[in-house]
Structures are given as C-alpha cells and as structure tokens.
Amino acid sequence: MMNKRLKEKAGFGALAVLTFLAVVPVLAIIGYLVWQGWPALTWEFLTQPPRKFLTEGGIYPAIIGTLALTVGTIMVAMPLGIGTAIYLVEYAGENVFTKLIRIAIINLAGVPSVVYGLFGMGMFVLTLGLGRSLAVGALTLGILTLPIIISTAEEALLAVPDSYRYASLALGATKWQTVRRVVLPVALPAILTGTILGIGRAAGETAPIMFTAAVVYTPRLPDSIYDQVMALPYHLYAISTEVPNVSQHMAFGAALVLLAIVGAMNLVAVVIRTRMRLKRLR
Amino acid sequence: MGDKNKMETRNLNLYYKGFQALINVSFPVKENTVTALIGPSGCGKSTFLRTLNRMNDVIEGTRIKGEVLLDDENIYDAEVDPVVLRKQVGMVFQRPNPFPMSIYDNIAYGPRIHGRKNKDELNEIVEKSLQAAALWDEVKDRLHKSALGLSGGQQQRLVIARVLAVDPQVILMDEPASALDPISTAKLEDLIHQLKSSYTIVIVTHNMQQAARVSDFTGFFLNGEMIEYSVTNTMFTAPRIKQTEDYITGRFG
C-alpha cells in the first residue's frame, strides 16, 4: 500500500518538476527582455523615427509597419483560410481532390519561412511586378499563415456536433443556412483563437518580409499599400547584425515592443473566446 | 382516426454502400394517427424513418429504390426539393439537440430561415409553438436564456416546439424518450397524444409499453424487412407472426 502511494507521489512530483522546467525558459526570456529592454522604453522611443543610422531615436515607423502588415495579413489569410476550411469540412466530402488539398496544406505548414519570402519575392515582386510593398508583405505572410488557420478552422468545424447540422437540415434549412447560422457561430471562438495565434506568429517573422516588404530605414509612414515599410522583426535583425555601435538596450527595447504586440493579440484571442463561450451558455 | 394515407412507401429498398438496409418495405402512415415502429437494434426502423424526410440523403453512400409518397406524390421525384419537403415532414431526434442559442431563437430558427422577419409574428409563433409543446408555462419567463440550461425532458419538448414552429404536417420521432427519465417520458407521451389531432406522427421506439401506450398502428421491423403491420391493440394482443410475438414478449432483441 505504502509503496503505491509513494510511487504516486514520486510520479506527480516528477511531472511537476518537468512542468516547472518547461516554464523556466519562457519566464527567463520575458524577464531578460524586460530587464534589458526596459531602459530603452521612453516616450521618444515609441513615437519617433530612428536617427543616425538607427543608433538613436525611436522605432515608431517599425511599430506602425508591423501593425499594418498584421492587419494586411488578417485581410488576406482570414477569408481565404476560413473559406477553405468551410468548403473542406462542410461541402467537399472525402475524395481524391480534397485529399490532395489536405496534403498540400500539411506540406505548406512545413515549409521554412524563408522559402515563403523567396516565393513572395519571385511571384509577387518580380513576376507580377508588384514591387516590394506592404501589400506583397501581407500576401506573403498571409500565405505563410494559411495552413495554421485552415487546420485550426477545420478542427473547430469538425468539433461542432453533427446533431446541430441534422437539426437544422431537418427543419428545412439549406446547407448554407445551416453553416452560416448554426455551425459557424458555434465554431467561431475556436476559429478566431486559432487565427489570431497564427497571425501573431506571422507578425514576428523576419524572413518572409525581408525580400518583400521591409526596408532598413524610412522615416515615412506608409500611406498606401504599395509603400515599403519598416517592421519590428526586420528592424531588430538589421540593428543586431548590420549596424555597428547600437546600444543593446535599443535592440531589446524593440524586441520587448514586438513581444508586447504579439502578447496583446493573444490576449485578445483569449478574451474573445471566453466572452463568446459565456454568452452561449447564459 | 383518418383512413387516408398521409404517407406511404411502396417497395422501398435502401442500400448503404454494399449493404441493403431496407428490403421491399411497403408501409402506410395514416393521417392524424400515431404510428410506432418497433424492432431490435439495427433492424432498419430508424433508417426507414429517415427515408420519410430524406434525411438519409445527408449520409454519403446511400441509394434508394422504390417510392415514398406524401399526399400521393413521390418525395424522391427529381423535382422535389428536400429542403421544402423537410419543412412539411419534421423530425425529432434521439438525443435532445437544441441549438446553443436562447430558447426564443431556437423556436424562431425555422420561421426565420423560411423568411419570416416580422417581430410580432415571430413572437406569436414562439408562444404558440411552446404552448403546443406544453412548455410555455415552464419557460415563459426565461425565453432569452440559453436553451442548454433546460432539463433533458424540457429540451426534448423544446425541440418538438421548434419543429411545430415551421408548421409541418408529419412529425417523425426517433426514440424521442430514450434519453429521458420516467416523468419526462410521461409528459412527452401526453404531448404526443395531444399533437395527434393536428399532426401525423411516426415514432421509433425500443420500449414496447410506450408503443402500446402512444400509437394507433404499429409496424414490426426485422433485418431490414417490415414483418408485420397492424392496429397496435391487435399487434400486442394477437400478433399474427411468430417472430413478432417472440419480440414483443421479450424472447429476443
């Protein structure tokens, strides 16, 4: 008897230690970023463009650029991804064609992000002649995010019980009415969560935008989707590797801001999900 | 009790992939009566029920031969739209399946998808349907609360009210009491009795007493075939066929 209890305690103890170890790097990263980056976070840093070859001044254009790219990515990836998932789950059924699509999506998810960058440059910048721009960056990041959005949206739709679909169809609803009025509202919290997490990931990518949208320095804010922009991840890359004599605090300050943006998006995802869940049960 | 056949199947065969689930079923459903379908699990009675509103169409790989008539018209004719048919032939499922919306929105769902938008009209339909389903008094103060907060028996009556709201002629019920406690079951059976005057009802049940209590006619299914059909009283007192007797006396199934 004692032996069994001891084993139980040892087992849970070991699991607790492993959990702790898994959390340590996260806390360490955040802690280090705050420690190193905090001194750089001044009002000027957040609201002014860089000066003197990025060694002074702020990161305002990069913040705006990253936000603009993120909005663009949402506009590209959300309708495409959610639409594809709805088609695959609700309409297409199982056949060779949909199997091919699924295999393509899975493989797309495994492609390194730098390849998306090269594709974006080759396809949009050179072949279609769109030029390096906000639009092309958003398209490239959108494609990068698609597999995540499609597969989370697919899972969310599959998790909706068929009994809802049957109930609706049996009342004389069309398939589209059923999807639009019953299935989608139920799946939406999970779809939005997945989408926002995916886009948060894309917001931090450097490789896809370095050939397609981002520039090392422009004091100008974009006023059309054909403008090039500064972006936080690329800025970080640039000041860490290309520019000598940048204070460490500037780099970590930028990293901290990037983390805060992505963190805020994830927070939004959590809030949306919780509110929609509660609303349904009340 | 009407003598008119509200629905009728003629030599109905249903194949699911390689398997024949229904074999030559010819079966009448009399208007304004309750018809019970009994038989052991897997005998095809639920499949048969779903041919009556073409819900089998939803399942990939099903194929049908023969006729299913509603008011003497074959519902499998090419020009019949299953969406329109299902408005006339409603269905209640085994497990209560209210949508995760308010009670009001559940009932208004059907009328809304069929194009009704007027608020007063919807209010009236909701109240009338809930009253007809004997649920109004229990929920009238919380119409805008989630339907998932209701008990199982209330949910099943809500689902029936939801069906009534689209004003069907026939209501199909697939073991509607199998997930309910005895008190809720009794309420449901009372409700079925009341609905009979305005609707034609077909009910699948595993419970012999229930079939005896609620139905006017009973059909016994076995291995995809309709073995015996008769007035419920006769079926349970003097079945003509040995297999029927064995089943209703509990010797198998």
Automatic annotation (TrEMBL), chain A:
GO terms for molecular function: phosphate transmembrane transporter activity. Its main location: membrane. CDD domains: TM_PBP2. GO terms for biological process: phosphate ion transmembrane transport. GO terms for cellular component: plasma membrane. It is a multi-pass membrane protein. Pfam families: BPD_transp_1. Coiled coil: none annotated. It is found in: Cell membrane. Residues 63-269 form the ABC transmembrane type-1 domain. Keywords: Cell membrane, Membrane, Transmembrane, Transmembrane helix, Transport. InterPro entries: MetI-like, MetI-like_sf, Phosphate_PstA. The chain crosses the membrane at residues 12-38, 58-88, 100-128, 134-161, 182-203, 250-272. NCBIfam families: 3a0107s02c. Belongs to the binding-protein-dependent transport system permease family. CysTW subfamily. This is Phosphate transport system permease protein PstA. It comes from Sporotomaculum syntrophicum. The lineage of its organism: Bacteria, Bacillati, Bacillota, Clostridia, Eubacteriales. The gene is pstA_1.
From TrEMBL, chain B:
PROSITE patterns: ABC_TRANSPORTER_1, ABC_TRANSPORTER_2. The keyword rRNA-binding does not apply. Gene3D superfamilies: P-loop containing nucleotide triphosphate hydrolases (3.40.50.300). SUPFAM superfamilies: P-loop containing nucleoside triphosphate hydrolases. GO terms for molecular function: ATP binding; ATP hydrolysis activity; phosphate transmembrane transporter activity. Keywords: ATP-binding, Cell membrane, Membrane, Nucleotide-binding, Phosphate transport, Translocase, Transport. Pfam families: ABC_tran. InterPro entries: AAA+_ATPase, ABC_transporter-like_ATP-bd, ABC_transporter-like_CS, P-loop_NTPase, PstB-like. GO terms for cellular component: plasma membrane. Residues 7-248 form the ABC transporter domain. It is found in: Cell inner membrane. It is a peripheral membrane protein. GO terms for biological process: phosphate ion transmembrane transport. Part of the ABC transporter complex PstSACB involved in phosphate import. Responsible for energy coupling to the transport system. This is Phosphate import ATP-binding protein PstB 3. It comes from Sporotomaculum syntrophicum.
